[in-house]
Structure prediction request, 178 residues.
Amino acid sequence: MLRNPRHKSARRFAKLRECGDVESPLPHGLKKLVEVSRNDAAKLLKAIADFQEDMAKLRSPLVDVASKDVAKRFRSSPRVRATAQVYGGVQWARLSEGYLRSRPDRVTGTQLIDSGLLRRSFLEGRPGNITIASKNELRFGSNLERAVVQHRRRLLVVDHAGIGVETARAIAQEIEKI
Prediction:
């Protein structure tokens, strides 16, 4: 249903509905019809059930989504003396003055971008990477000690709306291949 009954679209929709010209309450009075044959619907439902029964079938596209998401977070990393929001909507706090005094080589530059080891550990097949796919789960991440330490300070893996959208898109593309 439309939320604001005073909105022009809502009034127009209400008039159309009174006249019997509209069957479903879609925003802005739009009517969308999707025709699917019984065979197509059965194939689609079977494909969805197959993917639910074996997560390993989605390994490649979902690992791709996860690694791209982490890469975007690293690319949006703030300078060492700045606190800023990174991709995914979390704040990364500036590096402490004590740390910067103890590591003069880090006084300039970008947070968590040093040797690149941590960033690369989120790429499948690289040292420190974890990619495990089974029927019931898909695990992706890094097992480097520095990943655990840094994740406590600055979230490296974040659940946010963007990754949900990309995950859904990747799954839909896999289903379309069937």
Remarks:
- The chain has seven helices and four strands.
- The two ends are 34 Å apart (CA to CA).
- Residues 1-34 have pLDDT under 50 and may be disordered.
- The chain has two domains: 8-52, 55-176.
